[in-house]
Amino acid sequence: MYRLQFRRCASTFSTRYTAKNEPILEYRRGGKEVKQLEETLNEYKSKLNRIPCIVDGKEVWTNSVQRQLLPFDHQHVLAEYCLADPVLLERAIESGVKNRSRWEQMPVEERANIFLKAADLGSDLKWRSRLLASTMLGQGKTIFQAEIDAACEVIDFWRFNVQYLASALAYSPISTRDSENTYIQRGLEGFVAAVSPFNFTAIGANLASSPALMGNTVLWKSASTAILSNYVVYKLLEEAGLPPGVIQFVPSKGGDFGRAITRSPHLAAITFTGSTDTFMTLWKWVADNIGNYRTFPRMIGECGGKNFHLIHSSADPTTIVYATIRSAFEYSGQKCSACSRVYLPRSMSKTFFAHMKSIMMNELKIGSPLQHETFTSAVIDRASFDNIRNYIEYARSSPTTKILVGGQCDDSVGFYVQPTLIETTDPKDKLMCEEIFGPVLTVYVYEDDKYDETLELIDQTSNYALTGSIFCKDENVLKKTRARLMQAMGNLYINDKSTGAVVNQQPFGGARLSGTNDKAGGPHYIFRFSSPLAVKNMKEPLKTFKHASME
Ligand SMILES: NC(=O)c1ccc[n+]([C@@H]2O[C@H](COP(=O)([O-])OP(=O)(O)OC[C@H]3O[C@@H](n4cnc5c(N)ncnc54)[C@H](O)[C@@H]3O)[C@@H](O)[C@H]2O)c1
Ligand SMILES: N[C@@H](CCC=O)C(=O)O
């Protein structure tokens, strides 16, 4: 059990708290964590989970009710949740504004300890199984994918953000004989709007809780397909001691939420993760209202990607296959960091394609995420299924692309899209440029002697710059490649897959239109939610207005 302990030394604070990454549990059949998880899965599955909005700490059961379905069995309604309409959103904003200064004035140690307590609760099997079960059912994640997201990453965000805050508080400006100088991490004036995506429970948890840790009040709008897991996160925080009215849990229609927050003069920041288009819409709405705000709203956005694996002829032939399978098809490619374009040298293409085909056709089990042997399951919803199917149809009809494996889509029970491997002869094909957000991987084979041109191609093909992997064992080539692709990603992997960033190991965020690159899971992220106050306190009265040179 960690408690944050600050100790005063002269005029500075310091702390003994150092976070560690939460160990990943294995969930082997018959183990105690599996037993607990199965009980919780059964509990959630056997009832209709009813979810209210929460405003000012009070449940609000609105008349507008929506349903969350199991993506892998869409006849099964997992939850019914209440939608906040524009009037309730106004109330939530008022509540946030009203509660802000009381929360901000709570001693920072007490605030931080709530999140450390939350991390401890999440680590324990009772809450851990709730986090996992709600994520597996609602978002269609396998046990491993749910564990690394809804348990480990959630817990890591809570612990490491506290560590970053503690280090920040250790900073003290120089005081002089005449003046005592202090530097205070203050919350933003107004409220923070957190808008989260469906694909990571941890992202929702982080978007809502980082601003809160820094003394802000938050309006949290979850994605409609991640409501149950996000509600579990909210309830966990409540049990950890988060006071009422610090986070308002307000599922709502995207447009209603976006309009309500951008209309309010009290908007202090939007912390968003989702598609680039949605972030651009929010940015435009803020611009439309720019004369109306009390402060400049901060825009923090982590957006889409078109992540690449670049393979050099010196790469290890087995690593490139395993890494590509994992990055492109785990969680059905629904990670912003998923590999969706590969640049492959002609000299390795035969063995690469043969190995990929063999694994994809014989070893990848696609099915219910509740079965241990499942590699990946259905995609999140009807809209996503239709969108991905359109790209596959396009690939079927285009003269420059060929589907090598997969391509089948079946929505009779769940929204299943078979992992699909495509080869294109057009490196600027839309399959190489646009984010698909599904299990569709396109490969462009380049001639070995065209490596430099291929670097140019990678850099120029997409407006996204989220993650990229270089597979190469030649140090000189690697050096040249890194220099050429310096701006082509926010997270670079060398001889590893382009997914799987871990808090405080690979702080995460993209460049270009992939986002504002504030690096969640890194030491600077929390400062986007702070408006520091520098204080100079004069010790002596002024004796003259004249400078020495004037004497
Ligand atoms: N870069 C990252 O760290 C990161 C991480 C996860 C996901 N993503 C990206 O997220 C996308 C997938 O997630 P998604 O489908 O949930 O994205 P999305 O943009 O459809 O939705 C994200 C959130 O925005 C809300 N929203 C939609 N319109 C809105 C509006 N006008 N005003 C306010 N809110 C609005 C949605 O309801 C949801 O809560 C992909 O593009 C993926 O790359 C990026
Ligand atoms: N932490 C994730 C990024 C989140 C994107 O959806 C990864 O690196 O796989």
From TrEMBL:
The lineage of its organism: Eukaryota, Metazoa, Spiralia, Gnathifera, Rotifera. Its EC number is 1.2.1.88. Keywords: NAD, Oxidoreductase, Proline metabolism. Pathway: Amino-acid degradation; L-proline degradation into L-glutamate; L-glutamate from L-proline: step 2/2. GO terms for cellular component: mitochondrial matrix. It comes from Rotaria magnacalcarata. It comes from the Eukaryota. SUPFAM superfamilies: ALDH-like. GO terms for biological process: L-proline catabolic process to L-glutamate. Gene3D superfamilies: Aldehyde Dehydrogenase, Chain A, domain 1, Aldehyde Dehydrogenase, Chain A, domain 2. Belongs to the aldehyde dehydrogenase family. One of its GO terms (molecular function) is L-glutamate gamma-semialdehyde dehydrogenase activity. Pfam families: Aldedh. Residues 70-530 form the Aldehyde dehydrogenase domain. It catalyses: L-glutamate 5-semialdehyde + NAD(+) + H2O = L-glutamate + NADH + 2 H(+). This is Multifunctional fusion protein.
